[in-house]
Write the structure tokens for this entry.
Amino acid sequence: MKRFSTSFGVVKAVESANFQVRRGEIFGLVGESGSGKSTIGFMVVGIYKPTSGKIEFNGKDISMPARKRSKELKREMQIVFQDPASSLNPTKSVADIVALPLRTHKICNSKEEERTRVEELLDTVELPPQDFVLRRPRDLGGGERQAVAIARAIATKPSFIVLDEPTSALDVSIQAKILKVLVKLQRELNMSYLFITHDLSLMRNVASRVAVMYLGKIFEHAPTHVFFQNSQHPYTRMLLSSAPVLTEEEEALKPKEVKSTGEIPSSINPPPGCSFHTRCPFVMGICKTKEPKSVMTESEHYVACWLFVK
Amino acid sequence: MKRLLDVNNLRVGYKIYKGSSKVLNGLSFTVHEGEKVGIIGESGSGKTTAMRAILRVLASNAIVESGEISFKGKDILKINEKELTEIRRKNITMIFQDPTAALNPVFTAGDQLANVIKYSGIIEGKNIRNEDLKAKSLELLKDVALQDPERVLNSYPFQLSGGMKQRICIAMSLGTARDLLIADEPTTNLDVTIQDQVLHLMSKLVSERNLSVILISHALGTIRGITDRGCVMYAGDMIETAATGELFSNPLHPYTRGLLESCPKLTGGGFSKGIRGHVPDYLDPPSGCRFHPRCDHASDVCKREKPQFVGDSDSHLVACWLYNKR
């Protein structure tokens, strides 16, 4: 659980979220703005400390802020932020930006070794080193900047990366390229990703398991193919039916019975019971008073909705 | 169908510190009466510049080099301020991308809406009573499916969510447009479920009032959802136009194809490789077809000469040398 105090009161950004990211998998976290998906990502890498609850990594409790974590742990976990324009130091060259984690973690023994490693890293994210080492973030396009951010994240050979909307600031033609690089790296280096996005179509193509969040809670959670063929939570179905699509085949996948209505309520004062009941077309009496527990409806498929509680 | 808006060979550039950029490179397109046209293009392709040129609200460093924008037979670029004001009041309205920036933070939504209604002259007569203005405002807000319109009228923009603000902007534009509505990325800042609601609402209201629409977006799915005809823009040129269904099922231009392939699909299937390179520098744009440095099919003629629109019929046109047999 994560709470923030604001001048309006206490915001429960993440109220309850249970999930595991397995070794070597891409775990997708989907939600609209204000659902708390980024807050989860930030807690995992230690930017925020959970108010209560536990985060474990390789069996060890890591529910503490980054400054209290061991250097080794910080080397293992990295993050790529949404907006590469603000996550790269504008005064440094690309070479310096990518070399910083190498220096912090004393990975290279000599200047030469560092230079070769930086060039190698730029190569893996498909930026020709000779053209890029001396350039500064302002001279790069959005996609190139994000590629630099990725090179920096993989510099320490982490086993786990949080990707917080890594392509939502990019154009589609550039997005495809960056995603290709990310997926390729994940396979080659056998890393795990916590992939945070609001784009369901994107999720379909990268993640092996997907969880949907709404107002700080995980509503549904399933392997990707199950999730897209047999989604059950009314909110998931609303998200799917709202997704803009390009082909008839995709249109056929969209649920027809749930039309998008209403807006996300404020997380300062969320509705009682199931927080989705104000927008749900299937709302029942119990939804307004009691919060549903997550139940398993089929193998590895969890849904938190009274419709599925027997 | 009668032609409402004809943009012909429009060239617009910007004067900047490093020289003068050439953004719109002889842009031409047409909007018919009652037609919903979608303009697709990535960031930096000149979509917004083109729309701002139509209303003559370009930035002060913009230079319109040549071209004509004929609206109902009048060339917007040549008419005087008075006529232009009339067109802005009564004929063409625009919804901007960022509703937070489009609304004035120090006036209530009601005040701003009332002002727009007064200015547009949709209520006849010299002395408009405040009650009439309020009644009309409420009516417009109800049209855009805002709950509790009374409260919204008395709210300042910061008290409203992004979706609500954009609905107010839509109410302003829809309520006062008589011919053409220009919507510049109206849902880019909104969440998907809200985007879906806003787009369907816009589409419904526009059909009811028989307005023409230009919807600009870089999200191809939104264009496919609600428009009749799609136009694809690249680096200041219109490169393909067709009925929306046809454009998405049978794209011809290599750029359009690349763009469609780049989009991840709900049905899965992985990713394409995207399109290499990026939108050119407008200070020194490529010669000939501006897409040639990124195109896998580029030949010598592409570098020399800009391709003109060709097609079997008027319905599907493409500007590419692959289809231009000479």
Q: What stands out?
A: The CA atoms of residues 8 and 268 of chain A lie 7 Å apart.
